[in-house]
Design goal:
By secondary structure, the protein is an alpha/beta fold. Helices cover 39% and strands 17% of the residues.
Length: 225
């Protein structure tokens, strides 16, 4: 048995399994290594922009709101430039307080293009106590907040209203070229907080190479959200 396979069999994560079950995991759960052609998440979106700019990238059926890949890229580039101007970059976090919407997707892509790591917070379900805890624990450089939730964020946190800045950039025809790419596969992609139903919510730190090695990202914005 190869050394790498032996180490997997002896892994603490499999310690609760019987020897036969461990062997089953090794036989059926481990395949050959494959190269990851796009190891940075937003590069995958930018690839789609180059291949099919006029295809629908994201849509919200309830509000009949949709963006093509080119439009998503344009809005995200503009917002990313705003974030960079505010000092946001690699090694930093940006909290996104929003409900499922087109604005949420633009915010996610913009944060990634800025080089930072996004922290999604569901404005519909998060309690005030949990929101306060996450904003304190994540230590974000900036918060991107949908207009309906602005009053829930303390004034001590630097904040941008998503609808306001996106619409302002559109009206002014702001620079929509891609900001300098500072991201690497080992940079943080997002931090997802657990529900905290059995204690204090904990942030799970996920990096670009962890996401791109695991499969595809799917944005689901179907009703009733």
């Amino acid at each position: 048995m190869a050394a790498s396979t032996t180490s997997i069999v002896d892994s603490p994560a499999l310690a609760h399994l019987s020897p036969s079950d461990r062997a089953f995991v090794v036989e059926h759960g481990i395949g050959p290594r494959r190269p990851v052609t796009i190891p940075i998440v937003h590069h995958g979106i930018e690839y789609q922009v180059s291949q099919r700019p006029n295809a629908i990238a994201v849509e919200h059926l309830l509000f009949n709101h949709r963006l093509t890949y080119a439009q998503l890229d344009q809005q995200a580039n503009r917002l990313a430039r705003r974030l960079r101007s505010a000092g946001v970059g690699p090694g930093q976090r940006v909290c996104i307080l929003a409900r499922r919407s087109i604005y949420l997707v633009v915010a996610i892509v913009a944060v990634l293009k800025s080089g930072a790591q996004y922290v999604p917070i569901d404005g519909v379900t998060v309690t005030d106590a949990t929101l306060k805890y996450i904003l304190g624990d994540a230590k974000p450089k900036m918060a991107l907040v949908m207009e309906e939730y602005v009053e829930r964020v303390e004034e001590t946190i630097d904040m941008m209203c998503l609808e306001e800045v996106i619409e302002e950039d559109e009206k002014l025809g702001a620079d929509d070229t891609k900001p300098e790419d500072l991201s690497s596969p080992t940079d943080g992609c997002y931090v997802i907080y657990t529900s905290g139903t059995t204690g204090t919510p904990k942030g799970v730190d996920v990096r670009h190479n962890g996401v791109t090695n695991g499969g595809h990202i799917l944005f689901s914005l179907s009703p009733p959200y």
